[in-house]
Amino acid sequence: MRLVVLGGGESGVGTAILGKQKGYDVFVSDFAKIKESYKEVLIKNSIDWEDEKHTESLILNADVVMKSPGIPEKAPIVKKLIEKGIPVISEIEFAASFTKAVTIGITGSNGKTTTTMLTYHLLKSAGLNVGLAGNIGKSFAEQVAEDKYDSYVLELSSFQLDGIINYKPHIAIITNISPDHLDRYDYKYENYIDSKFRITMNQTEEDYLIYDADDEAISDWLQKNKTRAKLIPFSLTKTFEQGVFIKNNTMEAIINQEEFTMETESIALEGKHNLKNAMAATSVAKLMQIRKATIRESLSNFQGVEHRLEKVLKIQNVQYINDSKATNVNATFFALDSMNSPTVWIVGGVDKGNDYNELMALVREKVKAIICLGVDNRKIIDAFGNVVDIMVEVNNMNDAVRMAQRITEKGDTVLLSPACASFDLFENYEDRGRQFKDAVHNL
């Protein structure tokens, strides 16, 4: 069996290692340059590879192809593979067939990293032998090759779900759905929604789907489509016979006839959206039969995720917050919604088809100045030019932070929440967040 891996990054190299271990004839091909550290791993494992090209004669003879999530379906080599009827799958699909471990799959437009990390924290604190993978950390395939975990918490992007055929998580979570990555879905929101719901397509009556019952796109889909999984909803406004809800400032979870309660103010993560992330993670902990005391302790000591509403420093009574991971409008909505003081908002980058109207009321209420940090800021200026008193354009992070410091007064907040991808001025959102933190520390 010939396995061709497209993309020599974390998921690609991990898949190559697992494929080789399972007796496949493996070849890795990357149209860009493969990082030196990954090349060393491939050479050490005697795996054939090429970079900066795709040699068709070495790819189109595959029995199965694992495509890295970053490569679009529209890529010429992928189109040719599909035309030839060669299965093109994701790392998750490939690796899942070689493990008996229980998997918890988490997807959503926002909140999935926090929910994944919090769920992992809950299970690990309870002493479970659990791995963390998917869109985060070390490759799932490589961890399956090492075979040391009984269960995995997997953060799954829509791109990873597009490449599944038989994979099913025992527990699936959909945190929420809002327009994102529409450039990859022919600008059709319904295609993106369907993509997210692939997480439950192979689930059976033995499995669970945990979801946000306040989310319109999720509720609509569930009304029109069927899943065989047992449903566990969570909500800030509704109550359920089975599910998680809020009553008198208390989070109540009723799952499989068992009840768990916790005061919302004891939960370490702040903001309504984080309360939802906590509800989703609590549902998993209850299904995995973790003790109530452990759940309470884990929810009250969890520190959050880097680049997601991360408090950096307070300087002259001005709080600087790094929310670089907010790469779409919905994520920035949550960030602005949780601001309690006049805010200087740093925004901009590569627009993925954003509609800024959703933010209008929050910007009017909370934002005193906007700093545009992008190559093309036209849309942001058109949207908010008449709404805020101060609108500034900069093209590097140091200028953005210095300008913010000039504009602020005591008691204000400076929020980096770009609502856009980062590739115009930065390597990725992590690089953008780190540059922000460095600039703040240098003030």
UniProtKB/TrEMBL annotation:
Coiled coil: none annotated. The gene is murD. Keywords: ATP-binding, Cell cycle, Cell division, Cell shape, Cell wall biogenesis/degradation, Cytoplasm, Ligase, Nucleotide-binding, Peptidoglycan synthesis. Pathway: Cell wall biogenesis; peptidoglycan biosynthesis. ATP binds at residues 108-114. Residues 307-420 form the Mur ligase C-terminal domain. GO terms for molecular function: UDP-N-acetylmuramoylalanine-D-glutamate ligase activity. InterPro entries: Mur-like_cat_sf (IPR036565), Mur_ligase_C (IPR004101), Mur_ligase_C_dom_sf (IPR036615), Mur_ligase_cen (IPR013221), MurD (IPR005762). This is UDP-N-acetylmuramoylalanine--D-glutamate ligase. Residues 106-284 form the Mur ligase central domain. Cell wall formation. Catalyzes the addition of glutamate to the nucleotide precursor UDP-N-acetylmuramoyl-L-alanine (UMA). It comes from Flavobacterium plantiphilum. It is found in: Cytoplasm. Its main location: cytoplasm. Pfam families: Mur_ligase_C (PF02875), Mur_ligase_M (PF08245), MurD_N (PF21377). It catalyses: UDP-N-acetyl-alpha-D-muramoyl-L-alanine + D-glutamate + ATP = UDP-N-acetyl-alpha-D-muramoyl-L-alanyl-D-glutamate + ADP + phosphate + H(+). It is an enzyme of class 6 (ligase). Belongs to the MurCDEF family.
